[in-house]
Amino acid sequence: MLKGIDPVVTADLLYVLMRMGHGDDILLCDINHPAVTIARETTHGQLLDLAGCDLPRAAEALLSLMPLDTFVEAPVMRMQVVGTPDRIVPIHQTMQTVVDRIEGRHVPTAALERFAFYAAAKRAFAVVRTSDPGPYGCFIFRKGVI
Q1: Is 69 known to be catalytic?
Q2: Beta bridge partners of 77
């Protein structure tokens, strides 16, 4: 254990966060997401698992260490609900609340169509899969500067 680092943050996740630079993206997803397939195409190339952790708790841990990008309009992206793109499911609202609380401000979030989201996820630095059952618990966070 290290002082001041959330115990949810694994050594592998800490390594990835340290390697990421400003403007790099990280995907945080639920258990249903095709995470292994997507992760193979990312910079890191391997899936990071946070077994036993839900999305809000994982986001709290991640954002306790990683600043969000303030140079882009929406540093958080989420997957749209198929067939009803304007629909907000409970996890979307929960994550908005978590992100806003940790950042101490309202953080704009963009919604991407399912396949556009998959394409964006493949360009991410890494993929972190939680045990959250979802659905639509897929979020991309863009790293900022301190």
Answers
A1: yes
A2: 110, 140
Determine phi and psi for 143, rounding to 5 degrees: -75, 135
- pLDDT digit string, tens, across residues 54-110: 999 999 999 999 999 999 999 999 999 999 999 999 999 999 999 999 999 999 999
Out of 30, 69, 92, 136, the active site residue is 69
For residue 51, give both structure tokens. Answer: 């077994």
What is the CATH number assigned to the segment(s) 11-142?
3.40.1650.10
Pairing of strands 138-142, 76-79: antiparallel
DSSP β-ladder status, 138-142 and 25-29? antiparallel
Domain range list for the chain: 11-142
Tally the residues of the chain: 146
Q: Is 24 annotated in the active site?
A: no
Q: Is the pLDDT of residue 30 over 80?
A: yes
Q: Is 100 a catalytic residue?
A: no
Residues ≥6 apart with Cβ < 8 Å to 24: 43, 124, 125, 142, 143
For residue 108, count CB atoms less than 10 angstroms from its CB and return exposed for 0-12, middle for 13-18, buried for 19 or more: exposed
